[in-house]
Amino acid sequence: MNGETHSQLANFIWSICNLLRGPYKRNEYRKVILPLTVLRRFDCLLESTKQAAFEEFRTLKTKPERVIQARLQSITGHRFYNLSQMQFDKKADHSLLNDPNNLAPNLNSYINGFSPNVRAIMEKFKFSDQIAHMAEKNILFEVIKTFAVIDLSPQRVDNVQMGYVFEELIRIGAEQSNEEAGEHFTPREVIKLMVNLLLAPEQDLAQSHVVKTIYDPACGTGGMLSVAEEYIRKLNAEAQPKLFGQDWNDEAWAVCKSDMLIKGEDDDNVILGDSFTRDGFDRDSEGNKWTFVYMLANPPFGVEWKQQQTYIQQEADTLGYAGRLAPALRVSMTVPCYSCNT
Q1: 3-state DSSP call for residue 314?
Q2: Judgement on whether residues 139 and 37 belong to the same structural domain of the protein
C-alpha cells in the first residue's frame, strides 16, 4: 500500500463522515461508508477491462445468459462485471461527476449495470435508500467526489489488505454506534490462534494441490475463512482451499460476499440466512449431503436463542445424532452458560 497502512486508509475513508453530519447520525454513517467502499473497490478492479467488456457485450446480446456471464467474467478476470459506461473517476469520459444534476439516477443506473451478484450485495446494503437520502439533503455530489479520489486499485491495495480495510471500517463503525465490536467481527489475533490450533496438527496441508473445505456457520464478514485460507496458502501455494459461510446479518453477509468476489472465490458459497433454522449447506446442487473438512466459528455468545429453540429441538428429536444439532443441544443442557441466562 505504498507505505500506508490499512488502518490509515480506513481512517481516511471514515473521515468522509464529516460530509454526512447533520443528515445522518453517527450510528448511521456505515450505511453509506461500507457500500461506497465496496463500489469504489469494484470500480477500480474493473477499470482496465471496462471498455472491452462493454464492447464484447454488444456482440453477445442474443446469446444465453450463462454464455454472456462466462465471457464477460473471462474478460474482467473477476466473477463480476459492469455494463454501464459510467465510472467514479472524474477524468473518465463517462464520469458520474460530469452531470451533478442527475447524479442520483446515474449512480443507480451504474449499480444496475453490475452483474447480478453485485446487485444482490447492494440490495442488502439498501444503498438505493441512501442515494435518495443524500440527494435530498444535497450532499450526494460531495460524497461521491470524495470517494472518487480514493485509489483502491489492486496495485495499491492488494486483496489481503482490502480485507483488513473492511474489517477496520466495521470496527470503527461499531465503536461509533456504541456497539460491541465482537458482534461484527472477531479480532485477527483471536482468529489466527483458532486457525493455528485447528490446522497446525494437520500433516497433509503441504501436499500438492490438496483440496480442503472450510465452513463457518456464523461467518460474519468472513474473517475466519480468510485467515484459514491464508494459512493454508502460505504452507502450500498449490493448495485449493474452498470456503463456505453463512450469516443472517444482511450487512455482514454483503461485506463477506464482496470480499469473496474481490479475491476470486466462489461467492455463491456465502449464503444469507440463520444457519440454525435454515441449513444453507444441507445438500449440494446434485443432491449430495454436504461435508466439510474443517469448521470453525465464533457464534453470537450471549444472544438468546429462543427464536430458534423450537426448530432446534424439533431437528434434534427428529434426526438425533444423525443431524447437526442434537450433540450441541445435549452439551448446552449439561454445561451451564454464565453469560447468556438461557
Answers
A1: helix
A2: yes
Look up the domain containing 42 and give its range.
6-176
CB 250 within 8 A of CB 272: yes
pLDDT in tens, 216-271: 999 988 889 988 998 898 888 888 899 999 999 898 899 899 989 988 889 999 99
Does 98 reside within a domain? yes
Nearest Cα residue to 151 out of 255, 2, 51 = 2
Show the DSSP H helices in 241-305 as ranges. 250-263
Long-range contacts of range 227-230, CB-CB < 8 Å, 24 or more positions apart?
A: 227/188, 227/191, 227/192, 227/195, 228/195, 228/198, 228/199, 228/294, 228/296, 229/265, 230/160
Examine residue 305 and state whether it is found in any structural domain, yes or no.
no
Sequential DSSP letters for 167-204: HHHHHHHHHHTT--GGGT---HHHHHHHHHHHHTT-SS
Q: Is the four-CA dihedral 282, 283, 284, 288 of positive or negative sign?
A: positive
Distance, CA of 229 to CA of 175 (rounded, Å): 28
Counting DSSP H helices and E strands in the chain, the numbers are 14, 4
Contact between 89 and 47 under an 8 Å Cβ cutoff? The reply is yes
Q: Is the pLDDT of residue 122 over 90?
A: yes
Query: Which pLDDT value is given to residue 314?
Result: 82
Q: Are the beta carbons of 76 and 111 closer than 8 angstroms?
A: no
